[in-house]
Amino acid sequence: MKIAVCIKRVPDSETRVKIASDGKSLEEAGVKFILNPYDEFAVEEALRRREHAGAGEVVIVALGPPAAQETIRTALAMGADRGVLLQVERIPPDGLEVARALAAELRDGAYDLILFGKLAIDDANHQVGPMVAELLGLPCVTTVAHLELEQGRGIAEREIEGGVEVVAFPLPAVLTTDKGLNEPRYPALKGIMAAKKKPLEVKPATLGPGGLEVLALTLPPERREGRIVGEGAAAVVELVRLLREEAKVL
Amino acid sequence: MSDVLAVVEQRAGVLRSVSHEVVTGARRLADALTGRVDALALAGGAVRGAARLGAFGADRVITLTNAAFGAYAPEGYAQAVAERAQTGDYGAVLFAATALGKDLAPRVAARLGRPLAQDVTDVLVEGGVVTVVRPVYAGKALLRLRFGATPALVSLRSNVFTPVERPKAGATETAAVAIPAGRVVVQEIKAAAVGALDVAEAPIVISGGRGLKDPANFKLLEELAAAFGGSAAVGASRAVVDAGWRPHADQVGQTGKTVSPTLYIAVGISGAIQHLAGMRTSKVIVAINKDKDAPIFKVADYGLVGDLFQVIPQLTAEIKKSRA
Fold first, then answer.
1. ∠A248-B18-B203 over CA atoms, to 5°?
2. What is the CA radius of gyration of chain A?
3. B14, B273, B318, B319: which to substitute to probe chain A, counting the most A Cβ within 10 Å?
4. Is the complex ipTM higher than 0.85?
5. Residues B217-228: what's their mean pLDDT?
6. A212/B145 CB distance under 8 A
């Protein structure tokens, strides 16, 4: 089985957001970057499928700045075979431009599966995976939380409002992974050492102008300072009165 | 001047109420663009409730029927929406940022070769151009984007665009479309418990954290939710989902769902930054926690310091009383 996993380097989820002086981007000084958590499920799934098949290759593909090489090495340390960095100065705000660059790289790869995390926790664009599928003309299932593959066909389960959708699809296919699909492994020391020697190809990516322009990145308005209504069950009557008469939500 | 296409949703032939929000957002946008609103439903047959979309601002309600459109057919839906979007002068195509909308919108965007902004919390027209605001970094910042191409494809976050009714009916039309069955087929929907509301869509969310001490104690929150008469859903913090107490579908926060209910009640949740990210846009926040220094009180409009095992049953009784 030949599997591509598209990953992204993102700021850690504990990052305190500061706006850069351009007023349009994150101040990156002092920010710790990680492998996007949803992409970990994709990497883990690819490794399990390769291990289960007993043969195959897992290729990590990322579009990002030079520092994304470290992120690719993290996935290689988990057990992936090789990496490709499509190098850009900045990741554009228009997800379709990212999808086009990835699709161009993946098109002739003869992959059985192309996996993505369901979204990146920084810009939460939530679109690149299914766009790549459309550009490549491949079937696609998004936000997969359970997966069975057998003889060129798959059954995936995805959460929808108030239920779970059971979806059948043929391979090759593009899937985006959700939490719950698996428990991603931690890279072992041996894996980290091995990852340093695995092939990582870096090539410049060509991006179009894109159809989205960032006007501003701002901090959300502070919530008005709340108040403590009281202590213990005795304060419940007052709380309900405030919700009804002041907040008017009852 | 251009029109707005509002893609609405049905399940089992019944219009989903989130569609009212999409049409309301579309109306607002169409007024700014001095255009019309076309609501577009994709279904196996007639959609119950679609005719009433005129009351939310649709000038025309179009239902495209296909034997394969009863359940969500990703490829067929994408083709039908993309084809329709190319027939008119649409300045924008709006979706609900639901499981279906977030899956469908990128497919349509790729087919049309147009940009997409998902999960937006505001949409407006500036100098004739569509601009949107969307939360990024899990709600820790807001990104303002301008579309450089039309139609602008946008999905709207649930519970943000409050439906507005107006005394007007839209014209309705139904047409069968011949589109090949896609390769991706929804075989069944395993429904959650009957009547269970999704946390991302419920007007009231009551979430529990580690303070509940035991999974069985979520019964207290379910009883409180029931006291609200079917408008409340029970959510959970990441800690209790990771511990296996509650399903991931109920998780509120950065690696769960982002919610914007009218009322959010956090019970026994300390308020880690990744949880706050998922619920800080709620209209009114109530925190109930025994630790008066818990960070959750910093974002709560109303805080109650106390033992949840005494407070919650009391609150359930008072809510029942107030609704009687």
1. 30
2. 22
3. B318
4. yes
5. 97
6. yes
